TrEMBL record:
Record has Lipid biosynthesis as a keyword: no
Record's signal peptide: none
Recorded family membership: Belongs to the peptidase C40 family.
Domain of life where this protein originates: Bacteria
GO BP annotations listed: proteolysis
Keywords assigned by UniProt, alphabetized: Hydrolase, Protease, Thiol protease
Pfam family, one: NLPC_P60
InterPro entries: NLP_P60_dom, Papain-like_cys_pep_sf, Peptidase_C40
UniProt GO MF annotations: cysteine-type peptidase activity
Domain NlpC/P60: 5-40
The protein's name: C40 family peptidase
SUPFAM superfamilies per record: Cysteine proteinases (SSF54001)
């Protein structure tokens, strides 16, 4: 189940989905930071 939350409500381990339609996902780690993989063949910004 996907439940939208505000940035202030994010907890470490939450998945963060991006773009519309959703085409990217990252993992929230804490302190406003997330980790994610770059697109195939391109380094992450």
């Amino acid at each position: 189940m996907v439940v939208p939350v505000s940035r202030a409500e994010l907890q470490p381990g939450d998945l963060v989905f991006s773009y519309s339609p959703i085409s990217h996902v990252g993992l929230y780690v804490s302190n406003g930071q997330m980790v994610h993989a770059s697109a195939s063949g391109r380094p992450a910004p």
